[in-house]
Design goal:
Number of domains of chain B: 2
Distance between the termini of chain B: 81 Å
CATH topology of chain A: Fumarate Reductase Cytochrome B subunit
CATH superfamily of chain A: Transmembrane di-heme cytochromes, Chain C
Largest sheet of chain A: 2 strands, antiparallel
Number of strands of chain B: 11
CATH class of chain A: Mainly Alpha
Strand order of the largest sheet of chain A: 1-2
Shape of chain B: elongated
Oligomer: heterodimer
CATH topology of the largest domain in chain B: Alpha-Beta Plaits
Order of helices and strands of chain A: EHHHHHHHEHH
Order of helices and strands of chain B: EEHEEHEEHEEHHEHEEHHH
CATH class of the largest domain in chain B: Alpha Beta
Strand order of the largest sheet of chain B: 9-2-11-10
Strand content of chain B: 15-25%
Largest sheet of chain B: 4 strands, mixed
CATH architecture of the largest domain in chain B: 2-Layer Sandwich
């Protein structure tokens, strides 16, 4: 690996507040996914140990869920306007096969089509998880709902959780694959080269360069 | 609490086989509503044997007291006044766990061994394994399990599995003064029911029949009903109950889909990385970026 270039040019992508916000959601998500998978798959029931005992996992899981939702809601209001689809994103999505080979497609702004699609999938899943989670939450709320509604809520909760977990696997993989991305959410910065390659329009907008 | 451990038919959230070496006969409790006088001795016997004390209720205008099942009331008498063809009928039903052959509560339960089905047909809860999620409440087609407000765990009639294990009949059966509740092998109980139904039919109850709903694989609490064509009349006994489709999908089809989907996401990432390799903004572009800075 090449030593860090001293002349490396950096662009700030995420502020400290944004990073803290992201990692609060991420930590909550990991705890929820582990305990949730334990409730979903009998063979993974031992994962309830993440919260000490199975019963504690059942008690704590929904509270962590509320924290995740609130933190994610903050992210939603930070980023929704960056995630409206435009023509370049459609181009990106159509040519996703080319993207997977590592080639850039389209004049991408702050986020590409895949990131935007991921954002909206997360929004939908979070909303579905909160709604269904409250309906199924014992002993506080479930008793106020008819049993057939709770049954649907349990199905919706498990389904949207599976979709969200699969999406987060893709989200994490994309961050690992596109090198230099993790740094954006850890140190808050990306290199000019990174920005120019992956988000050319955003690069021009933030640096005022033509390139 | 379960006593026998060697004769388990099914165990909640347990993908491998249960200890099932012993082969006891299937038992059943037969409740003949046409013989029941609504004395509630069964409620008292249940409370006494299981050492349960429901809060003293208030009169709500009917005889129902307690008005619903609870963690402290595993069986309750339900009194329905039904008017048909200008005739009033007082339909009294002892409500409690039906001990389904295909128990929705057990299917829904996420905690290994919190719910077991004995080979004799009794569906029993192990409260020490219960995590209080209430999935059994949602899984049950008969709305029977109840969470305790004090310890958060699920409770319901266990057909006195401790008594049955040592060759006794359930407490409610023992105490019933009219013989409205009988207990024995499921085969025998069906025979008893057949003679009772024939008798009722000969006395003008042409729709008399046995309530042993096939939608849940049959039950180990069965009713002789004088109006078997309208079980709903008996305080909402469901006509053709079965495990809800939502619960079936949640505990059935969703699992293989989820497994394939999650595994695909993970494996795709791994193989993509070792074939295509990382996506780097290479040094050349670093150079370019610096070039531009200078210009």
């Amino acid at each position: 690996m090449k030593e860090k270039l001293p002349q490396e040019k950096l662009i700030r992508r995420y502020s400290a507040a944004e990073r803290i916000n992201h990692w609060v959601v991420a930590v909550c998500f990991v705890l929820l996914a582990i305990s949730g998978l334990a409730f979903f798959y009998p063979a993974f029931f031992w994962l309830t140990g993440v919260f000490g005992t199975p019963e504690l996992a059942r008690i704590v899981h929904p509270f962590v869920g509320v924290v995740m939702f609130v933190a994610f809601a903050r992210q939603f209001f930070r980023y929704w306007h960056h995630n409206l689809l435009n023509r370049e994103d459609v181009k990106w999505m159509v040519a996703v096969k080319e993207v997977m080979k590592g080639n850039e497609v389209g004049d991408i702004g702050r986020y590409n089509g895949g990131q935007k699609a991921m954002f909206w999938v997360m929004v939908l899943c979070m909303a579905a998880l909160l709604g269904s989670g409250i309906i199924a939450w014992r002993p506080y709320f479930a008793a106020s709902f008819p049993i057939p509604v709770i049954r649907i809520a349990l199905l919706v909760h498990a389904t949207s959780a599976v979709v969200l977990i699969a999406s987060i696997i893709v989200h994490v993989y994309a961050a690992l694959w596109v090198q230099g991305t993790i740094r954006a959410m850890v140190e808050g910065v990306v290199t000019h080269a990174w920005a120019k390659k992956h988000h050319p329009r955003w690069y021009r907008e933030t640096t005022g360069k033509k390139a | 609490m379960t006593v026998p451990s060697l004769d388990i038919q099914r165990r909640s959230a347990s993908p491998t086989a249960s200890p099932e070496a012993r082969n006891p006969a299937e038992i059943a409790q037969l409740i003949d509503v046409s013989v029941c006088i609504g004395c509630k001795a069964c409620q008292v016997a249940c409370s006494e044997w299981n050492e349960l004390r429901a809060d003293v209720g208030t009169c709500v205008g009917v005889y129902d007291n307690p008005t619903d099942l609870s963690s402290q009331a595993w069986t309750v008498m339900r009194f329905a006044e039904v008017e048909e063809n200008g005739k009033l009928e007082w339909l009294i039903r002892k409500d409690g766990c039906m001990h389904c052959a295909d128990p929705g509560c057990l299917k829904a339960c996420p905690s290994p061994g919190a719910i077991v089905q004995h080979k004799n047909g009794i569906v029993d809860y192990n409260q020490e394994n219960c995590i209080g999620c209430g999935y059994c409440v949602s899984g049950c087609p008969f709305n029977v399990p109840r969470l305790s407000p004090t310890d958060g765990k699920a409770y319901k009639c266990n057909m006195c599995s401790d008594r049955v294990a040592v060759g006794l009949e359930p407490a409610c059966v023992k105490t019933c003064p009219t013989g409205a509740i009988q207990f024995g092998s499921k085969e025998d109980m069906k025979e008893v029911a057949a003679t009772r139904i024939a008798d009722l039919q000969s006395r003008g109850y042409t729709n008399a029949g046995l309530y042993d709903p096939p939608g849940v694989g049959g039950t180990h609490t069965m009713y002789v009903l004088h109006h078997a064509d309208k079980p709903e009349q008996y305080s909402g006994l469901p006509n053709d109950p079965s495990i809800s489709m939502a619960v079936g999908l949640w505990k059935g089809a969703l699992k293989p889909f989820a497994t394939v989907g999650l595994a695909a996401a993970g494996l795709f990432g791994f193989f993509h990385y070792i074939t295509v390799g990382p996506n780097r903004a290479d040094d050349e572009s670093h150079e370019d970026a610096r070039e531009e800075d200078r210009s």
